[in-house]
């Protein structure tokens, strides 16, 4: 059993891959699964209902779409109010089939061994089967982080993370409401001198990553703007 971990999954217009993943998590002993419905369409509600049936997950909802960053902040606040006394922290995952339960297990175990560290699952972007926009975008952002933030991270937009409960509150009141939130979290670890433990995870893209809500140009500009602003706040 993995009673000491809360798995947090933000979900926006999910499909059957989300239900399958939630079921696999529950069958692997994760009985504290917190799903944040970020203003999904009504025609996707069936997948939330199915996930509740197969995983007994708790679903917290935004009435309208507010972005991945805000979804994580809402979920982390819910964690502090409902779960922190009986757990060591959270493992954050995506809902679109990009993570395996095997990698979630690795993240959870690293969190148990390193309760003063931020855990980061890194995809590998040298595989030519990965969509070009994903390879280019991730490598470019990693280079920007290395040059300007002195953070050597290969996958700055990974959705698989482990956060000890002692740090959860620090990641609620930081900048970023959408995809730029992931970058804001990394900058916060640097600012607060939180050690980062990285580990490789499987790189899974389904149908050329067509379900991704990431906007390559617009979201990248927002991310780079956030990095530049962080330089002037030092």
Would you mind describing this structure in some detail?
This protein is of the alpha/beta class and 234 residues long. Helices cover 44% and strands 15% of the residues. The chain is built from eight helices and seven strands. The chain has helices at residues 16-27, 45-55, 68-82, 101-113, 132-149, 165-168, 180-191, 216-232, and strands at residues 5-11, 33-38, 58-62, 89-92, 118-122, 161-164, 196-200. It has a seven-stranded mixed beta sheet with strand order 3-2-1-4-6-5-7, sandwiched between helices. Strand 2 (33-38), helix 2 (45-55) and strand 3 (58-62) form a beta-alpha-beta unit. The termini are far apart. The model has no long low-confidence stretch (mean pLDDT 87).
Please provide a brief summary of the model.
With 234 residues, the protein is an alpha/beta fold.
Summary tags:
234 residues; 7 strands; alpha/beta; 8 helices; globular; single chain; seven-stranded mixed beta sheet
